[in-house]
Specification:
Low-confidence stretches: 1-34, 419-458
Strand order of the largest sheet: 3-4-5
Structural class: mainly alpha
Largest sheet: 3 strands, antiparallel
Shape: elongated
Helix content: 55-70%
Number of helices: 18
Amino acid sequence: MRPPSPLPASWLCLLTGSLACALHPTSGWAAGQNWGLCDYVKMIEAERKQCLEETQREPVPAGCSTMWDNLTCWPATPRGQVVVLACPLVYNLFSPLQGYNVSRSCTDEGWTDLEPGPYPVACGLEDKEPGLDEQQQKMFYNSLKTGYTVGYSLSFTTLLVATAILSLFRKLHCTRNYIHMHLFISFILRAASVFIKDLILFSREDSDHCSEVSVGCKAAMVLFQYCVMANFFWLLVEGLYLHTLLAVSFFSERKYFWGYILIGWGVPSTFIMTWTIIRIQSEDIGCWDVIHSSLLWWILKAPILTTILVNFILFIRIIRILVQKLQPPDVWKSEKSPYSRLAKSTLLLIPLFGVHYIMFAFFPDNFKTEVKLVFELVVGSFQGFVVALLYCFLNGEVQAELRRKWRRWNIQGLLGWGPKYPSGGSNGVTGSTQVSMLTRVSPGARRSSSFQAEDSLV
C-alpha cells in the first residue's frame, strides 16, 4: 500500500526528472540521507502488513482496537488512555524530526483525531517552510510540466527545420555550421528524451515508481541523463570553438573538429556509462528516476557544473576580446555606438553558451525552489528555440542563401528549366569543379572566411 497522498518533494522530482534536481541533489530530501523514498515506501508497506496481521490475531479489545492510518500503526489501547508515538520516519525526507511526536486518545467513541494536528503540522513540516498547499502544489507542478512541454515542443520543431536548412544548402557547410548542427541535434535529443521520459513515468497517475523495474523504463532514464549532459557539453564546444577562433592565430579546423566531436558526444557517454554501472551495482531501485546516493548525484552534477563554469569563463574572455576589437580609433569613428554592438554580441552569446545557467548553478540549496524550477525547466526549455532563431533563421548568411535559392527556383520556373539544365551561367563551372576548387583553398583562407562569418555574427 502506498501513502494516501503524494509527498510534495517526491512528486517534484518524479515530475521533473530534471536538470534542476541533477544540479541540486542536496536540496530538499534525497541526498545526504541514508534512506530514500523507495526505502520508506517499502518500510511503510511492511508496517502495514504487520499491523493488519496484529489486528487479525488480537482478541476483541475492551477499548480501541489496533488501527492503521496509512502511516502509523496505533496499538490496541484501553479507553481513557493516550498513545504517544514518534512522527513517521518518512518525514525525515523533508526535515529532521527533532523529537516531534503525535498522539491519539482512546475514548468511548473510538480513536480521536491526530494531535496536535495533521502529520505535516505535527511533524514540523509546515513550520519549516510555509510553501504551497497540496492543491496549489499540484496546480503549480502541472503548469510547470505544461510550460516545459510547450517549450521543448517549440524547440524540437524549430531545431529540426534549422538542422535541415544547414544540412541541405552546401554553401552553408563549414566547421562553424557543423558545430551548430551538432548543438541543434543535442537540443533535439534532449527534447525527445524529455518526451519519452514523461510518457513512461506519467502515463499512469497511480504508477508505483518504487516497484517499476522494466528495462525500457531504466533505459529511458539513461537516455535522458545522457542527452542532458551531451547538450551541456555541446554548449561548451561552442564556447571553445569561438574562443579558439578569436584567440588562436593558426589552427587546423579539421583536427579540432574531431576533438570537438569527442568532447560533445564521447565525454558524456563515459560519465553516463560509469553512472549506469554504479547504479546497477549499488542502487538498482525502481525506474532510476529518483537518486539517493550522493556519489551518483555527483557523477552527473560535477561534469555539468564544470561545463557551466568553463563556459562562463570563456564568455568573459570573449567579451574582453570584443571590447578590445572595438577600441581602435577607426572603429570608434565608423560606429556611432560601439557599445550597442557589444551589447548585441553579449546577448547573442548568452543562449549559445548557456550562460544563464550560472544564475542558479551555485546558489544555496535553500533558495526558493519554485523560482529555480521555473527558470531551469520552463525558461530552459525555450533555449533551443532561441538558439535556432538566432543562429539560423536570423543569420544573415542563411537568409542570403535562402533568398538566392528562392530567386533561382523562381527563375527556373519562369524559364522552364529542368534538372538537366543547371544554372551555372557563362563561366561553365560545374558543381564538382566548385568542390575541387574549395578543396584547393588554403587552410588560412578557409579560417579567415570562417572568422569573418563568426565576426559578423557576434
